[in-house]
Design goal:
Layout: E1 5-10, E2 13-18, H1 29-44, E3 50-54, E4 59-61, H2 66-69, H3 74-80, H4 87-90, E5 96-100, E6 103-105, H5 107-114, E7 117-121, E8 125-127, H6 141-149, H7 151-160, E9 163-165, H8 166-171, E10 177-179, H9 184-196, H10 200-212, H11 218-231, H12 236-246
Parallel strand pairs: 2-3, 3-5, 4-6, 5-7, 6-8, 7-10
Antiparallel strand pairs: 1-2, 8-9
Helix pairs in contact: 6-7, 10-11
The structure holds octanoyl-coenzyme A.
Octanoyl-coenzyme A binds next to helix 2, strand 6 and helix 5.
Length: 256
């Protein structure tokens, strides 16, 4: 039973929907615990290949729960290490698609950036407005937004607290595609369904390699990619994929 999220499966796609509408899906500590546990359960589930994370049409998530944080002390925050658990999202090996409509602010923007692909509705607004409440992004925003959109635009957004429109987010590379607010979830599910048809071991290897691009020097990243590439030749799916191509038939992947 989940209090703050809804969980469902659609074939090979695991869908998590944030469900705190009264506070625009503010990311309380309890919500984050449920969310991370749901992600980890889908990651372990052999039938699931891709995860979709969605909010509502009005808000993906308007940030950390300010009411919950307001009176915390430095000792409370660092001893409980509330945001340390976010690192577990980085450990999810299957692709995660964020379906973003409305507000994706503060921790909400950081949560979307923790996913692998962002599909946005035309009404989406991204921002790191923490500066307005006396803090700075605390779940990777200064690092991930800078890598996604470059230093100058990241400074513009983080120092002023202004929001990026969906169009601006697309132009600057933060999001992969924009669709209407009626279609954003369907579009994310359609993309997830297409990706879910691919061989799971190659999907995981591709995700792992792309994420290394943010963390490694180019020559090390290329070496890392090459090792993963060679490693896939130990899988039955590589043989199946290449033989199916030559035999002009649809591959039947087994995830082995
Ligand atoms: N936390 C708690 N409650 C919130 C939050 C939030 N982040 N955002 C909105 N709400 C509540 C409002 O208080 C309001 O409640 P009520 O109806 O009881 O008054 C309800 O949601 C609806 O909000 P508004 O009436 O304000 O709706 P508007 O359409 O007028 O405005 C905004 C929407 C612009 C999104 C506005 O609500 C707003 O500015 N929200 C705060 C945005 C923000 O500052 N986010 C950053 C929070 S700090 C942060 O995320 C730090 C990240 C650290 C790491 C991540 C850890 C999880």
């Amino acid at each position: 039973m989940s209090d703050f999220i809804e969980i469902r499966k659609e074939d090979r796609v695991g869908v998590v929907t944030l469900n705190r509408p009264d506070v625009l899906n503010a990311l309380s500590f309890g919500l984050m615990d449920e969310l991370i546990e749901a992600f980890e359960a889908f990651d372990r589930d052999g039938k699931i290949h891709v995860i979709v994370l969605a909010g509502s049409e009005r808000a993906f998530a308007a940030g950390a729960d300010i009411g919950e944080m307001a009176d915390q002390s430095l000792v409370d925050m660092s001893e409980a290490d509330y945001f340390g658990r976010w690192s577990r999202i980085r450990g999810i090996r299957k692709p995660i698609i964020a379906a973003v409509s409305g507000y994706a602010l503060g921790g909400g923007c950081e949560l979307a950036m923790n996913c692998d692909i962002i599909v946005a509705s035309e009404s989406a607004q991204f921002g790191q407005p923490e500066i307005n409440i006396g803090v700075i992004p605390g779940a990777g925003g200064t690092q991930r937004l800078t890598r996604a959109v470059g230093k100058s635009k990241a400074m513009d957004v983080i120092l002023s607290g202004r929001f990026l429109t969906a169009k601006e987010a697309l132009e600057s590379g933060l999001v992969a595609r924009i669709v209407s607010k009626e279609q954003f979830l369907d579009e994310a599910l359609k993309l997830a369904g297409e990706i879910a048809e691919k061989p799971i071991l190659a999907l995981k290897a591709a995700k792992e390699a792309v994420l290394k691009a943010d963390e490694m020097p180019l020559s090390d990243g290329i070496e890392y990619e090459r090792r993963l590439f060679y490693g896939l030749f130990a899988t039955e799916d590589q043989k199946e994929g290449m033989h199916a191509f030559m035999e002009k038939r649809k591959p039947d992947y087994k995830g082995r």
